[in-house]
Q: What sequence folds into this?
């Protein structure tokens, strides 16, 4: 099957403008007769559902949480990018486009990324109009801060809870449409299959998670807005409920999966503390604005820190290695996430880790507190003592990052104003996802994927504060246009009865899998298998991969999958609230996904962004791309169990010169 990305012709800066002026439209009367299913109610899903309903379409929204307000978008902390150039520091749509392509290590589409950059400013205007309380400067203008991979300040934020505030803005628009009857909400419902009729997506099978009842729902189009699959690693910064099931069911019904091996490891996470943990906690990348990352220069100091014979404040300034500032002077602590993560791993692997496991580095705010304190003292016209300067500086930091500092202290018991935070990289975001074209349509007509559920905008590494940007861009400003190209040809299609044989077959298949899981009655819990899978993935397909390890991982996952289907124990029944049954279905999908991720990583004989193959690195330990052989999107077609066919979408760069990334 030939992959057609449907990128419009013409100059890059004119593609989206021309597209919007020429795309087929659906008139208001016909929109009222068209039904759209939106699966997921995070930023992408809520914004898409609210926008499409406002346009006149009939919309059904499904989320497995008890409220759309609990979607995982709420957990995003640091900010959202937009090329408004409020700081007058040289930003522009082109610079945001360039930074995103470069940050993704030249493995993203030019057309999609430029469109994202173009609409970024509109997102901020939309959110302000929705009541999002962005931070503001003294004069009332919206405030910006820096994030990794850029040399400008373009990140808009609402303290350390930007995702929550953006989601509440989208949620208010969604609930307005619910109140008007344009949107029907199905909370505590999980999509377990997609229904294909005449090669088009025509609906879904959903399970009411409270009663266990299976339901059939028709739609002229289905939008997957279900987030990423980082929980394949078990431990990640994702909420425990985050899963790949909706996307994976779509994949097994014909939707190609793009770049599954591209996983983002976030450099500023609270380190793992033991086997008791079910998830990890992120410390926002915004903390790298003012925090300095370091480890001791001497291994004996590192050993003293690990055994608590010394504390971080006992290490003299000259004995500290601010390794990001040393290695990457142009960007310092604000290098992209993949670069910062690998650098932390390298220092810890070399024996300079600072916690009892040796898997942590310091994020230190002492210099920022001193700098802000002196500025405040000057503003107040006082000759402040050292203690007063610290007091004033802490107050400024508290205003900018206070909720993050409070969260760290609640989790670790350490006051980060007085002692540096300990951080270590952790799985955070997945750049891979369902393959989509410029319209956000998958390889199944009528099925779309938005936000983190698709692969399209970030290449091999996502820049910080770009996830919220993509989710809202797709929902507010892209899908309302692009879906018309498909639905304009569906206005004569009447609602298909859910008694259609395709609906019956899909429901029976779902029921059969549920019955199988419940009837295995083995001896091992679902979490047992999930943890084993996560360890395989982290050890052999995590921050670093190699051919031998990936081959081993594939065999180990296949064996684990076979054991799962023979020996998992799922208590309870199908006709009740049964969280273990929900988890079992999700882990079954993770086992298959994990195998494909390892196959994709093994097939890609290069290092790029978050995909770091140890065989392909420079003498300085940086990622070494192979643009001649691997400048393409890996799009995998599901054939049968453990059997996929690779399709390649060539990436063409006509506006940016491909170069080896350098942040020095």
A:
């Amino acid at each position: 099957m030939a992959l057609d990305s449907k990128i419009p012709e013409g100059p890059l800066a004119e593609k989206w403008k021309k597209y919007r002026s020429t795309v087929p439209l659906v008139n208001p009367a016909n929109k009222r007769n068209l039904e759209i299913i939106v699966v997921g109610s995070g930023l992408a899903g809520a914004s898409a559902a609210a926008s499409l309903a406002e346009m006149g379409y009939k919309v059904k929204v499904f989320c497995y949480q008890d409220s759309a307000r609990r979607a995982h978008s709420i957990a995003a902390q640091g900010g959202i990018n937009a090329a408004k150039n409020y700081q007058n520091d040289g930003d522009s749509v082109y610079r945001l486009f360039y930074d995103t392509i470069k940050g993704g290590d030249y493995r993203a589409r030019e057309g999609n990324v430029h469109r994202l950059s173009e609409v970024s400013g509109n997102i901020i205007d939309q959110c302000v109009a929705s009541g999002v309380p962005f931070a503001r400067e003294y004069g009332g203008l919206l405030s910006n801060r820096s994030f990794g991979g850029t040399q400008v300040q373009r990140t808009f934020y609402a303290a350390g809870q930007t995702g929550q505030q953006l989601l509440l803005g989208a949620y208010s628009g969604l609930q307005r449409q619910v109140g008007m009857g344009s949107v029907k909400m199905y909370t505590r419902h999980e999509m377990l299959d997609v229904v294909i009729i005449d090669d088009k997506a025509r609906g879904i099978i959903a399970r009411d998670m409270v009663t266990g009842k299976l339901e059939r729902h028709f739609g002229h189009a289905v939008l997957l807005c279900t987030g990423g699959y980082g929980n394949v690693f078990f431990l990640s910064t994702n909420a425990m409920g985050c899963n790949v099931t909706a996307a994976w069911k779509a994949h097994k019904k014909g939707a190609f999966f793009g770049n599954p091996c591209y996983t983002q490891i976030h450099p500023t996470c609270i380190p793992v503390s033991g086997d008791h943990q079910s998830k990890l906690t992120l410390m926002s990348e915004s903390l790298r604005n003012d925090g300095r990352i370091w480890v001791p220069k001497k291994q004996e100091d590192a050993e003293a820190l690990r055994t608590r014979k010394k504390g971080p404040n006992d290490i003299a300034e000259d004995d500290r290695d601010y390794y990001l500032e040393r290695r990457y002077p142009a960007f310092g602590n604000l290098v992209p996430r993949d670069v910062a993560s690998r650098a932390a791993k390298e220092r810890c692997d070399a024996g300079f880790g600072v916690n009892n496991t040796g898997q942590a580095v310091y994020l230190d705010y002492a210099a920022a507190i001193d700098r802000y304190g002196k500025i405040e003292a000057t503003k107040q016209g006082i000759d402040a003592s050292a203690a007063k300067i610290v007091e004033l500086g802490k107050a400024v930091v508290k205003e900018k990052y206070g909720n993050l500092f409070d969260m760290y202290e609640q989790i670790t018991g350490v006051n980060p104003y007085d002692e540096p935070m300990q951080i270590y990289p952790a799985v955070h975001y997945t750049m891979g996802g369902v393959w989509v074209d410029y319209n956000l349509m998958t390889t199944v007509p009528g099925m779309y994927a938005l936000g983190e559920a698709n692969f399209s905008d970030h290449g091999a590494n996502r820049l910080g504060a770009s996830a919220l940007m993509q989710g809202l861009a797709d929902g507010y400003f892209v899908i309302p246009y692009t879906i018309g190209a498909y639905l304009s040809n569906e206005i004569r299609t009447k609602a298909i009865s859910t008694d259609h044989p395709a609906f019956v077959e899909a429901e029976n298949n779902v029921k059969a899998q549920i019955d199988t899981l419940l009837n295995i009655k083995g001896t091992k819990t679902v979490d047992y298998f999930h943890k084993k899978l996560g360890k395989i993935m982290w050890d052999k397909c995590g921050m670093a991969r190699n051919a031998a390890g990936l081959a081993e991982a594939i065999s180990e996952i296949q064996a684990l999958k076979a054991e799962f289907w023979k020996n998992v124990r799922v208590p309870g029944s199908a006709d009740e609230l049964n969280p273990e049954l929900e988890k079992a279905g999700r882990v079954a999908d993770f086992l298959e996904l994990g195998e494909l991720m390892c196959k994709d990583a093994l097939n890609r004989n290069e290092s790029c962004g978050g995909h770091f193959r140890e065989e392909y690195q420079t003498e300085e330990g940086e990622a070494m791309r192979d643009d001649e052989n691997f400048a393409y999107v890996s799009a995998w077609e599901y054939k049968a169990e453990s059997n996929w066919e690779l399709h390649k979408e060539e990436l063409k760069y006509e506006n940016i010169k491909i170069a080896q990334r350098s942040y020095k």
Observations:
- The first strand starts at residue 35 and ends at 39.
- The first helix runs from residue 12 to 22.
